[in-house]
Design goal:
Layout: E1 7-11, H1 16-27, E2 31-36, H2 39-51, E3 56-60, H3 66-80, E4 85-88, H4 103-131, E5 134-139, H5 143-146, H6 152-172, E6 177-184, H7 190-198, H8 202-209, H9 218-228, E7 240-243
Parallel strand pairs: 1-2, 1-4, 2-3, 4-5, 5-6, 6-7
Helix pairs in contact: 1-2, 1-9, 3-4, 4-6
The structure holds nicotinamide-adenine-dinucleotide (NAD).
Length: 250
């Protein structure tokens, strides 16, 4: 198994892409800290992992809050003694034209998607640096690479995640810590369903423009994530991999 003996923190693990990553990593032998703002959903994912013979800990966390992240790290280290892998997957978006958007929305989008990623890296890096081993995968978005109308500030935050990851990958290379980004295209998750509920034709229109003619499934992202944090990807750092059915070719 690719991730045998590894300990992985996955934020936003309660549903969607994060849940698929948590289950995939557990099947690959990792011990999983399923962290989410919604403790109930994190606990149900941890339960699913245990029901297939895996080992998991559910933690409630708000990635945009330093103290909450510190307490997640403490819980993880008490239970497993180390964290080898961090997946910064928790994210949030509100669709709407930029000129109709409010400062409250900008702050929330930046706090969860960009600042949350920064906070979690800062909190988990020290023990990776000490052991000279670590894999960080930040979930960005194709919106952060090519821009997406109706998601202007979200695009800025996700673009920020990519730039942050590149710069941090340079600083952390000397500690043998790999830092990469995963950029999903439109993916069939509860977040996407909420967006599609307000814009019923959006899924249909998107599918027509995707060369592989379907939405992404959470497992498509989980499969790529398992490779990028494995030792098979030891020589890959500072990169962004789009998993998008060919929608954007970058
Ligand atoms: N679904 C898509 O089409 C798509 C496309 C591009 C990028 N993404 C990105 O992929 C990631 C996962 O998206 P998804 O579609 O699975 O979303 P989702 O909304 O289905 O799941 C996100 C999870 O994150 C949790 N979360 C939200 N705020 C949090 C916080 N402050 N602290 C901790 N947990 C928090 C939620 O409770 C939820 O369980 C996000 O970063 C998203 O921006 C998704």
């Amino acid at each position: 198994m690719k991730l045998d003996q590894k300990v992985a923190v996955i934020t936003g693990a309660g549903r969607g892409i994060g849940k698929a990553i948590a289950l995939k990593f557990a099947r690959e032998g990792a011990r999983v800290i399923a962290a989410d703002l919604d403790h109930g959903s994190a606990a149900s994912v941890a339960g699913e992992i245990e029901s297939i013979g895996g080992d998991a800990l559910a933690v409630k966390v708000d990635v945009s809050d330093n103290l909450s992240v510190d307490s997640m790290v403490k819980e993880a280290l008490i239970k497993y003694g180390k964290v080898d892998i961090l997946i910064n997957n928790a994210g949030w978006d509100k669709i709407g034209l930029f000129m109709d958007s409010s400062e409250d929305t900008w702050e929330k989008v930046i706090a969860i998607n960009l600042k949350g990623t920064i906070i979690c890296c800062k909190a988990l890096l020290p023990q990776m640096m000490e052991r000279k081993y670590g894999k960080i995968l930040n979930v960005s978005s194709d919106a952060g690479r090519v821009g997406s109308s109706g998601e202007v500030v979200y695009s800025a935050a996700k673009g920020g995640v990519i730039a942050f990851s590149k710069a941090l990958a340079r600083e952390m290379a000397r500690y043998k810590i790999n830092i990469n980004c995963l950029a999903p295209g439109p993916t069939d998750t509860p977040l996407f369903a909420e967006v599609a509920a307000d814009n019923p034709k959006i899924a249909e229109a998107l599918i027509k423009s995707i060369p592989l003619r379907r939405l992404g499934q959470p497992n498509d992202l989980a499969n790529a994530a398992a490779f990028l944090v494995s030792d098979d990807a030891e020589y890959i750092t500072g990169q962004t991999l789009s998993v998008n059915g060919g929608l954007n070719m970058l």
